[in-house]
Design a protein that fits this description.
Length: 84
Amino acid sequence: MNENILGLIAGALTSIASLPQVIKVFKTKNTDDLSALMLIILILGLSLWVWYGFKKDELPIILSNAFAAILNLILLFCKLSFKK
């Protein structure tokens, strides 16, 4: 199997892991169980992976981590917006 395809599949699976949480948060408007600090650290790490992907010219790393960063930015925005 082509390693870029393998990287895209692996990246897609790990990136969409946050999608059910985003959907749940939008439905319930409840973010009590989400840690803002964890989201911030995760977003910083994912952003560094995107930067690394650009440095290495690796599209699977760039796409998967950028998508995951966007999902987690949405969760952080919800965490800050849906406060009671």
